[in-house]
Amino acid sequence: MSETLDDTRTPVPRGVSRPGHPALIGAAIGGIGGTVFVAANAPALPAPWTGIAWVAGAVALAVWCWTVLLARRVMPDLPRPGRSAGWVYLAGIAGMFLIMFAGSRLLAALDREPVQPAVIVVAVGVHFLPYARAFGAPVFARLGAALAVVGVLGLAGGLLVTPVAASASAVGAGLVLLLGIAADAHAPAPRGARS
Predict the structure, then answer these.
(1) Residue 38 contacts by C-beta under 8 Å, 6 or more apart in sequence?
(2) pTM, two decimal places
(3) Distance from the CA of 71 to the CA of which of 44, 54, 97, 165 falls in 20 to 30 A?
(4) How far apart are CA 185 and CA 63, in angstroms?
(5) What integer is the mean pLDDT of 28-49?
């Protein structure tokens, strides 16, 4: 990417130079979540998959760090979210915890607690979906749908085949979060956008 915008001599900043930008705050939260998904669930995988998960997670985190923090990128001024956005955010968080709690109770009743990581993936994915519209950020819809699908597949595999499928889906979800956020950060800025 060029050091300046095409139509001006304004330097394009690195992501790390705009720490209070909403896109960077959201990317940081997602990056932490993706890293935790990998770190918490890789040890539950059988060899050699644990090592492969650690390496994949490290590579995904390095890509995330480069594209989100170090690469020069346009971070346009974003419109202020509507009045209901805060309530949507809180409802999403509450819904996520409700899904986790209900899923945990159901799995405990079925004596299938090792499948819990997949329930967490589904809950995190579903909680992203309403944020796409509330915050005018389509990345939430893409990431939310991807995580929900990965979580449902892990849940099905964990219940029907092996509990390891649930941990594998959580590792996969971490990679999806890290690389999905990196891809969004690397996407071209809308025409005419200014940092």
Answers:
(1) 53, 54, 56, 57, 60, 171, 174, 175, 178
(2) 0.87
(3) 54
(4) 11
(5) 97
